[in-house]
C-alpha cells in the first residue's frame, strides 16, 4: 500500500475529513501525483464514513472513465448501509451489479440497507436474486 493510501486510510478511520480532502487535492495540485482508482476509493470511504454521502457520490461520478470504479462504488455502498441511505445505496448497488454481478457482499449490503429501512419486500427480492447467482 502506498504512503498516500495509508494516509487516506488513517484519515478515514480517525474522522479527519478535512485533512483527507486537502491531501487528495494537494496530490495533484502540489505534488503532481495523479490519483489512482485506489486513491479515489479511499477518499470515497473517508467521505462516506463521515456522512458526506452526496460528496462521495459526486467524486465517484467524477472519476476518470479509465478507472475501475468497483472499489469506489463498494465504499459508497458500505457508507450507505452505515447511514441508511436507501437512494444512494440503490444507485451504488446498481452500478456494482453492472460492473461485477457475482459479488455476494454487494447484494447483502443492499439487502441490509432495505432491512434497516423496513423495506422487507425489496430486501427479500435482493436475497432471492443473490441466491440465483449460485
Automatic annotation (TrEMBL):
Keywords: Repeat. Signal peptide: none annotated. GO terms for cellular component: cytoplasm. GO terms for molecular function: RNA binding. It comes from the Eukaryota. InterPro entries: E_motif, PPR_At4g14850-like_plant, PPR_rpt, TPR-like_helical_dom_sf. The keyword Repeat applies. GO terms for biological process: RNA modification. Gene3D superfamilies: Tetratricopeptide repeat domain. NCBIfam families: PPR (TIGR00756). Belongs to the PPR family. PCMP-E subfamily. This is Putative ovule protein.
Amino acid at each position: 500500500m502506498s504512503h498516500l493510501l495509508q494516509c487516506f486510510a488513517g484519515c478515514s478511520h480517525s474522522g479527519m475529513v478535512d485533512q483527507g480532502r486537502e491531501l487528495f487535492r494537494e496530490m495533484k495540485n502540489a505534488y503532481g501525483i495523479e490519483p489512482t482508482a485506489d486513491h479515489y476509493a479511499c477518499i470515497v470511504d473517508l467521505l462516506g464514513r463521515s456522512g458526506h454521502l452526496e460528496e462521495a457520490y459526486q467524486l465517484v461520478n467524477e472519476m476518470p472513465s479509465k478507472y475501475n470504479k468497483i472499489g469506489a462504488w463498494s465504499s459508497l455502498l458500505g457508507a450507505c448501509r452505515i447511514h441508511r441511505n436507501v437512494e444512494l445505496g440503490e444507485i451504488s448497488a446498481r452500478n456494482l451489479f453492472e460492473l461485477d454481478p457475482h459479488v455476494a457482499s454487494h447484494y447483502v449490503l443492499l439487502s441490509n440497507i432495505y432491512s434497516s429501512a423496513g423495506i422487507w419486500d425489496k430486501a427479500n427480492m435482493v436475497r432471492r436474486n443473490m441466491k440465483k447467482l449460485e
